[in-house]
Each structure stands twice: as C-alpha cells, then as structure tokens.
Write a structure and sequence with these properties.
By secondary structure, this protein is mostly helical. 47% of the residues lie in helices and 5% in strands. The protein has 15 helices and 8 strands. α4 packs parallel to α6, α9 runs antiparallel to α10 and α11 packs antiparallel against α12.
Length: 436
C-alpha cells in the first residue's frame, strides 16, 4: 500500500476492518462452565488465561468498546459472560499484579459492574483486592517492582477500582527504595537485576506515572514529587533533543544481543513516555511537560515507523509494543489539541495492510525476524492481538466522525484526553476528518 493509498481509508472501511477483527476474536472464545467465556493465550495449549495483558480480562474492554460504539447489546452480553469466567477464577489466581494478576482482573470486574450492573463482578472485585492486600509483604508482592507486574501497577489499578488506601499502600515503598542518580532517582525493576529500565512498562517512568497519579488523587504531594524526581533521571538520559526525545531501553543495557538500545512504542519508547508527560501536565499545570510530550511525538513521527526499515525495527502491530499503541497516542493528540490526523491515517492504513482477512474475519501476525518462519501465530488479547488493535480502530473511527474520544474502559496508565474546549482553531466537539 502506498502512502497516497494509505490516506484514503474511509471511516466505514476502518469500521468494517474492526468488525472483522471482532468476528475473529469472538471465534476464539472458549466455554468455561456456567455460561462463562474465556480466551486462551496462544502457545498455552489452549488453556484459558484470565490476565489483563493478553488473556480474558484484556478482551473485556474491547467488548465494552464495541457495545458503546455500535449500541449492540450482544457485545454487552459477551462482556458479562467473560466477566463470569473471571469471577470463577479470581480467588485462585497466583499473581497479584495489574497486567498479569488479580489487580487487573479486579479492575475489569469493577468496570463491568459499573457499566452493566453485574453485582457478582463487584463482589469478586472486592475479594480480589482484599487478597492482594493480604499478600503484601510490607514492601512488594514479588520479584517485579514496576508497572506491569509490581507495585506501580497495583497502585494504579487499585486507585481506578476505587481502593485509594491500597493504592497508597502499594506506592509508599518507593519512598524508601530509591537509588539516587546524578539527576534524580531510579528503582530496580526486578529483584537482583543490575540494569535500570527507564520507560513505562517495566521502568522508572511507569513508576513515576503511578506516583504522580496516586499522589495527586490522594493529596500526597510527597509521592508526586518523588515521581518528578524519577522523571528527572530519565529526562537527563535523553539522546533525541532538542527537538525530539529518545531515551535508551536500559542502563547498563539489558540483554544487548536480544534487545535494541532504542524503541519507539508504548512499552519502551516515546509513545509511552509521552503519557507520563501528559499526566504531569495535568497534575502540575506546567507547560514544560507539554513541550516534552511534543518532543516525544516528534521522535515517533520522524523515526520511520510504521515502515519496517530493517528486521526487528517495527515488527509488531499490537497495543503494547506496536502500531496500535502509537495510534492511541495519535488519537489522544487529535482529541486534546486538534493535532493533524495525517500520521494517524498512516498508522491505520498500515494496520489494515498487515491484516489477514478471509471468511474467518481479520487478525494480525507479529514478526520475530530471528525465527523461521518469522510470522507468529495471531493472538486474541490486548497486548499483541486483536483486542488491543480493534479497540484503537473503533476509537479512531469515532473521533473521525466527531464522536466522544473517551474509551468505554479507561486504561489506568493512559491519561484521559484533556480537551481544549476554547481552541480558537477547532472547537472541541467539531468533526475531525481522519480519513479523507
């Protein structure tokens, strides 16, 4: 697909692609007993997994998104059935974290109750958070000590689920586990690992985001300031200035034979870094944070993605590490500041170009260039699969038609767009033609 062709996908065409993606996603559901539905993680011998990252809990948000988008109660019914399977497993799940464990499952169950009035989901969310609290050792929940698998994510998830006390409990250990650096502070991401990671998923910025979010919501200025000290360390490592912003994956570089020094997606790059700066902009009202978010976007849009410039450079379509995660930020910028939709169009066209579409629906294969064959098996979930991609496509269509930019389910590590209602160029509720 050429760039000229890439700018001419209509909202109807993108919506049709999302519908095909939903159809393939739903075909992968498994009955779990008592009318429940669950989704297996690819490579797990077909076993249903409840986790938010790439299992059933991560599918529920796109079902809620489809329900809101199309007004079709069939998607709400499917979300209820998925929630039923989560209710059944929450007591025995072995992990407590946001992306892999009970906290993420609890947040999804709480949301299903809020949106659809499922009382059993609310009670199960309470039980899950009580169990998370009971398994705290006074400092942490396990080896991971970051956003996806550790304290930072547990704090964010607890806050979003309405348990501010647990959120503070999870974040306070960062006040006594800092490592001072020349410019600020950092933390270990995993027990016993020397490398310090810097970005959202496993690094300092993910911890800083949680500190700022929880600190602001609970009037804990000390947590906000500690978060800013963590950000200061990362900003001092920038190699992309003055116009851009690009920080290495880790120092010392972790697994240099396997991991590139620089990435550009949500997990380890400026597409995720920008969300930290957007949050601090909202928390502090300091325009300097907006400038840093703009620098992140400059680097993303000048990096060469979504073109696959070399093996391993941009081989992922998904929400965590790939094109859909960059699209999330692009749509935030359109919603907040009437940003040009040109790059969002290119991203959507690239997602469409890499889809496999047939009578079964649409799905996406990511690439591992070191494997043979290099095309990986399509996945269902949020991180690498259809759930995360389709959710962003539906939001893109809605924004393009002048609709509400808010998600049906707000991910706790992505700020809700702060729409500039007084924008003299484009009123906040004006139509943005993202596909013409």
């Amino acid at each position: 697909m050429t760039e000229t062709e890439a700018t001419h996908l209509t909202p109807d065409e993108v919506e049709a692609l999302a519908v095909d993606g939903l159809r393939w996603l739903l075909s992968g559901a498994r009955e779990t007993g008592d009318g429940g539905l669950g989704w297996p993680v690819k490579g797990s011998d077909g076993r249903v997994d409840p986790m938010l990252y790439n299992g059933t809990a991560g599918v529920v948000p796109v079902l809620l998104e489809a329900w809101r988008h199309f007004g079709d109660d069939a998607y709400a019914d499917l979300a209820l059935r998925a929630a039923r399977s989560l209710v059944d497993v929450v007591d025995d799940h072995p992990d407590d974290s946001l992306y892999f464990g009970r906290t993420g499952i609890a947040l999804v169950l709480r949301t299903v109750h809020r949106e659809l009035g499922y009382a059993d989901a609310d009670l199960a969310a309470d039980r899950a958070l009580d169990q998370v609290r009971s398994r705290f050792d006074g400092t942490r929940w396990g080896d991971l000590f970051e956003l996806m698998g550790g304290n930072a994510g547990i704090g964010l998830g607890a806050l979003a689920a309405g348990d501010a006390e647990l959120a503070v409990l999870a974040l306070e250990p960062y006040t006594r586990t800092t490592q001072a650096t020349a410019a600020g502070v950092t933390w270990e991401f995993r027990r016993g690992i020397e490398s310090r990671l810097h970005h959202m998923s496993h690094g300092t910025l993910g911890i800083a985001y949680a500190l700022a979010a929880v600190g602001s919501a609970t009037d804990r200025a000390d947590l906000v300031e500690l978060g800013r000290a963590g950000v200061a360390d990362v900003v001092a490592r920038d190699e992309g200035g003055p116009e851009g912003f690009l920080v290495p994956h880790s120092d010392p570089q972790r697994l240099p034979d396997l991991i590139d020094r620089h990435s550009y997606g949500w997990c380890h790059g400026p597409a995720g870094d920008a969300h930290v700066f957007r949050l601090l902009r909202d928390v502090t009202a300091d325009p300097a944070w907006s400038a840093l978010a703009d620098r992140c976007w400059h680097t993303v849009t000048h990096s060469g993605l979504p073109n696959r410039l070399r093996p391993g450079f941009w081989d992922n379509n998904g929400r965590c590490c790939g094109t859909a995660g960059v699209l999330a930020l692009a749509c935030d910028r359109i919603a907040e500041q009437a940003d040009s939709p040109d790059f969002a169009r290119i991203l959507v066209a690239d997602i469409a170009a890499h889809a496999t579409r047939d009578t079964d629906g649409a799905r996406w294969s990511n690439v591992e260039h070191r494997a043979n064959p290099s095309d990986l098996e399509p996945q269902h979930g949020w991180a690498m699969g259809n759930a995360g991609i389709v959710r962003e496509l539906l939001r893109y269509v809605r924004i393009g038609r002048g609709g509400d930019p808010a998600y049906a389910f707000a991910w706790p590590d992505q700020p809700v767009p702060r729409v500039q209602a007084t924008d003299p160029i484009r009123p906040a509720d004006a139509d943005v033609d993202v596909a013409s």
